[in-house]
Amino acid sequence: ISSMSLAYLSILTAEGFSRSSKNQVYDTLKNRIDIDGRGAYLASIATANTSYYETPIKDTALLLKAFAAHGDEHPAIADVLRWLLASRDHSGVWGGTHNTFTVVDAMIDYLKWQHETESHFMLRGLLDGVEIFGYEFNPSNIFKTFTHYIPIDEFAREKLLPLVFERKNLNDKKNNLYYDMSLKYFIPVDSLPPRDEGITITRGLYGLNDTKEEKPLVIAQVGEVIKGKLAITIPDHYSHVAVEDIIPAGFEIVNFNLQTEDQALLNNDTFGALPASEGWLSRFTDIFNGPQAAQIYQSDESGGSYTNDTRKLLPTHIESHDDRVFLYIEDLSPGVYEYEYFLRALVPGEFQHLPARAEELFFPEVFGRTGGGTFKITPALKS
Asked: Is 242 helix (H, G, I), strand (E, B) or coil?
C-alpha cells in the first residue's frame, strides 16, 4: 500500500474502530517515518497503484493530519512541522494544488488540536543567567518567526554557558514553543577539512591538457587557462540545492557567454591539438550557453541505476561573479553530478582557496564542503 493510502486509512480508522485495528494501521504508518538532518518526513513508496500526484510533501502533511486525528504527541511532530514549513517554494506555497491544499488542511487540524491560535505568553532568553531577549507571542503573531543573534565573542572560552528559556503564560492555555539554534564560526582556511553532512562534494583544478584529470594543480602561470571541476554526490532527493565555489583571488572566471571571449579563445594556441569535436573545447558552449545546453547522461526511466557513473549537473540558475561560481538546482534526485568551469590566472601571488560548498537552502545543516587550501600563480615566462 502506498504511503498516501496508508495515511488516509490511518486517519479514517482513528475513530469508530477497535484499538487493535487502528493501532495496526497507525503503527505501520509511523514505522515509515524517515528522519535526517532536514527533519522528519514520510517518504513516498512506489506501488502499481500509486497516483502520479503523490509526493513526499503530501504524504508528510497526511502524517501530520494522522497525528492530530489520533491525538498523538509523537516525538517527531516538531521535526515534521519543520520539514513541511521549510518545503515551501519561492512563492510561499508547496508547489502543486494537491500539495498545498493537503498541507494547509493538515495545519488547520494541527492548530485546532494544539489550540495554537490561542497562544499568548511571554518568552525570555537568559544566557548564563543574563537576559538577552524578551518577546511576547500572541494570536496576532503566531505565524511570525522571532530571531535573535549572539556574537560568538560574547561567549567565554572554555566555559559551559547555559541558555535558558523562561516562559510566562498570559492565559490558561499551555501551547508549544518551537525553536532552532545554529552556530556559525570561522577558522583558518588551511585548517578546514572536508565535511559530509548529507552531501559529498569534491573539487579539482586541472590543466587543459590533463584530459584524464589525473594531476590536480596548485600552481599556474599568469595568462594560463585551467579547468575547475566539481563532483557532487546526492544520497536522497533534495530540493533547492545551492552550490558555491569561491575561486582564488588571483583568477577570473572565463565567461563564454561573451562573444569576445569566444573569439579570443578559439584563436588561442593553448587549446592544443585536440579536435574541437572531441576535446574539452567542444564542451565550452555546452556548459556556459545556459542550463538547457548542458547534456545529461542517460538514465533508466524507471529510476534505476544510471548507464554512466556520473551525470552533468543541470542548474536551474547559474551566476558567475568576480570571486565565485554560484549554482542553484530546484530538484536533485540521488546520484553523482559533475560541473565544469574555466579560470584564467591574472595576478601573481599565493592565494587562499576557500572550500566549495553545497547545501539545501532551507535545510543548511544538510551540506557538504571541500577542504581549504592555497593556490600559487607565478609570473608568465618571458619569451
From this structure: strand
Cα 228 from Cα 226, distance rounded (Å)? 7
Long-range contacts of 85-94 (CB under 8 A, 24+ apart): 86/38, 86/39, 86/362, 86/363, 87/57, 87/60, 87/239, 87/362, 88/362, 89/240, 94/57, 94/61
* Cα–Cα distance for residue pair 66/8, rounded to 1 Å: 8
Task: Give the dihedral of Cα atoms 231, 90, 145, 360; nearest 10 deg.
Answer: -10
Q: Each residue of 1-33: pLDDT tens digit? A: 889 999 999 999 999 999 999 999 999 999 999
In whole angstroms, give the CA distance from residue 41 to residue 381: 58
Reported as type and span, the H/E element at residue 6 is helix 3-12
- H or E element that contains 99: helix 97-114
149 burial type by CB count under 10 A (0-12 exposed, 13-18 middle, 19+ buried): exposed
Q: In the numeric block, which cell numbers belong to residue 165?
A: 528559556
Q: Identify any residues that bridge with 331 across adjacent strands, giving them in sequence order.
A: 239
In 179-200, which positions are buried (b, 16+ CB within 10 angstroms) versus exposed (e)? eeeeeeeeeeeeebeebeebbb
The whole-model pTM stands at 0.58
pLDDT for 270 equals: 36
pLDDT digits (tens, 9 = 90+) for 143-190: 788 999 999 888 888 999 899 999 999 988 877 888 888 888 788 888
| 169-to-70, 172, 177, 178 alpha-carbon distances in Å | 27, 7, 12, 15
Phi, then psi, of 109 in degrees rounded to 5: -60, -40
Residue 328 has pLDDT above 70, yes or no: yes
